[in-house]
Amino acid sequence: MMLRRGFILFLPRLVGLLVVACCSMSIVYMLACTPKGDNQQPALPRVHSPTVKEGYEAILQEREEQHRNYIISLKKQIAQLKAELQGRTEQLKNMQNQYPDPLDIQLDHSKPEKAQANLLAFLRSQVDKAEVHSGVKLSTEYAAVPFESFTLQKVYQLETGLTRHPEEKPVRKDKRDELIEVIELAVGSLNKPDGVSRAKPRVYTASDFVEGIYRTEKNKGTLYELTFKGDAKHQFKKIVLFRPFGPVMKVKNENVNMADTLINVIVPLAKRASKFRQFMQNFREMGIQQDGRIHLTVVYFGKEQMNEVKSILENTSKSANFKNFTFIQLNEEFSRGKGLDVGARFWKGNNVVLFFCDVDIYFTAEFLNSCRLNTQPGKKVFYPVLFSQYNPSIIYGHHDSIPSLEQQLIIKKETGFWRDFGFGMTCQYRSDFINIGGFDLDIKGWGGEDVHLYRKYLHSNLMVIRTPVRGLFHLWHEKQCLDELTPEQYKMCMQSKAMNEASHGQLGMLVFKQEIETHLHRQKLSKKT
Fold it and tell me: Regarding the domain delimited by 263-477, which CATH topology (the fold level of the hierarchy) does it fall under?
């Protein structure tokens, strides 16, 4: 690419030099044809001399020979320049064919052969640019792209994904199909006759596959190295495959106007008035003051602390001049799924974006825009992965005081984790929620209802947008796992509780606290002696 651009810049200069050379030769030719001065003219024979005719003919013949030599010299130089220019032009064409610019590749259906040739040339260039045949210099140890290994049954991965298992069966269909395809291609390649050996070739099968490694360079492609059993005990066959990524192609270019897109934030609640007060402070600043296109629906279970919750809601309404809220009271046992379902169906206006939220969630105005941009009725629902805060008393236990809430909301491995096992906070249009059938109202208490709804969307034709977002936080609170929960719910609750406290390193410091203190005490004694 750099060579081609450099030659393109050099090409006008080369043409200019050619023009200057031609002009120079013309001037020389003119000077050569101009009669010389009197002092420099050769002595001509006298007019009445008998040899006058022969003398003039000799001089003219000499001049003509000189001019002919000049012309031949000029033609040679011009021919050389033309040949050099032609060579550079051919070189540029070869470079363009070998390394086409991805932005210049046009899949012109009127000329499919040319489009296919351009695409194949680009894909070959991806192999040359990737770290396949030789290594590349890297700046730090963190710049290396690690491989992951696999066998016929298992994948051993560093990027553990949503399952969090370092060793697992390929659960996702796309990954399973990808690895099966690669193994089948390798087996097919091994079984192709080489045209050299006359012996009956061995037939390889998938059972001969020993192991493979693969890694993906995001802008180039995926490299696979597969090892098969050889003909003898310590012999192996190795196949290297590369799946190049194609050029970037524009799919859509559209204007999106979200000025009139309202979000209905639905919060199921029972007791927890102090947490609701904290939630309303966040809602007032981000939802009312900064965003302004928002409605709040609170579905309250029971009557205990209900008046306090209603008072907080009414005070916010008066002080912020906010009227877009709905309070629904249910005299029954708390059920998160039931509360969200009732709040969604209670809405009587036009189709609206629903944001299913909890009282211990902190969101920003930027997240509300993400909520709008990643939902589309009949097409897309949004399942953000929020950042879950660790126990501040553990994180900041060595500090003089715990920082304010806003200062705690930092996305770092020491302060929290991506809650990729949670599906409770979600944005979708009300029409999609109704059409999918809503929540399973038979699920009581904590957990399970969100996963059930998530699976409904996965089994539908709607696109599920699942991504970490920087503006959605789960605030730490002590989790109570009640005895009334089913064994499965109780297990999920305890796992969530363990994950919420601190990182592995921080929990390890607590576990080995006594050993650390003993070590420090011995150090002090040794210094005194």
Answer: Spore Coat Polysaccharide Biosynthesis Protein SpsA; Chain A (3.90.550)
Helix (H) or strand (E) holding 7: helix 2-33
Q: What is the mean pLDDT of residues 37-60?
A: 57
pLDDT value of position 103: 41
- More confident site: 479 or 43: 479
The predicted model scores a pTM of 0.64
Distance CA 388, CA 366 (A): 18
Contact 263, 344 (CB under 8 A): no
Indicate the angle between helix axes 52-98 and 112-129, nearest 10 degrees: 80
Whether 31 has a pLDDT exceeding 70, the answer reads no
Q: What is the pLDDT of residues 272-323, one digit of tens each?
A: 999 999 999 999 999 999 999 999 999 999 999 999 999 999 999 999 999 9
What tokens does 134 get?
A: 């030789």
Q: Which amino acid is residue 488, in one-letter code?
A: E
> Amino acid letter at 310?
K
Q: Cβ distance 131 to 147 under 8 Å?
A: no
- pLDDT value at residue 218: 78
Q: How many residues belong to the chain?
A: 529
Q: And the tokens for 298?
A: 């609170």
pLDDT for position 500: 79
Asked if 363 and 472 count as a contact pair (C-beta separation under 8 A), the reply is yes
Separation between Cα atoms, residue 484 and residue 195, nearest integer Å: 72
Tokens for 509, please give them. 């410091």
Of residues 505 and 76, more confidently modeled: 76
Q: Please answer whether residues 306 and 276 qualify as being in contact, where contact means their C-beta atoms are separated by less than 8 angstroms.
A: no
Beta strands 263-269 and 353-356 are: parallel
Q: What is the mean pLDDT of residues 485-499?
A: 80
Model pLDDT for residues 210-222, shown as the tens digit of each residue? 889 888 887 788 8
Question: Residue 265 pairs with which residues in a beta bridge?
Answer: 296, 355
* Domain map (residue ranges) of the chain: 145-191+203-257, 263-477, 478-523
Neighbour-count burial for 476-506, b at 16+ CB within 10 Å, e otherwise:
beeeebeeebeeebbebbeebeebbbbbeeb
**Pair of tokens at residue 76:** 């040679």
| Residue whose C-alpha is closest to residue 224's, from 194, 191, 189 | 189
Structure tokens of 332? Answer: 């029954």
Pairing of strands 294-301, 361-363: unpaired
**Per-residue 3-state assignment (H helix, E strand, C coil) for 125-191:** HHHHHCCCCCCCCCCCHHHCCCCEEECCCCEECCCCHHHCCCEECCCCHHHHHHHHHHHHHHHHHHC
8 Å CB contact between 395 and 502: yes
Instruction: Return d(Cα 302, Cα 333) in angstroms, integer.
Output: 7
Q: Which residues pair with 387 in a beta bridge?
A: 418, 473
